[in-house]
Amino acid sequence: MSELQNSSIRIKVIGVGGAGSNTVHRLIEANVPDIYAIAMNTDLQHLSFIKAHEKLLLGPTVTRNHGTGGNPELGRMAAEESA
To answer: How many domains would you assign to the chain?
Structure first.
């Protein structure tokens, strides 16, 4: 147990979409220690308000930066575009 207490554990948190990006934002706002937060979204406007260590805009051509409107097929296409 003492090895764990002395180690520097870092957790990567990846939030995808509106809900995932909001979760990442809340973790950063709460100053949760030892995390590296990444937010991914198809909605550029929403992503611009999110606090994260990294932000990735998915599918800018497919969605024209406006999100998928909850359409899973459009989300799949956006993810493939950005892969």
So the answer is: 1
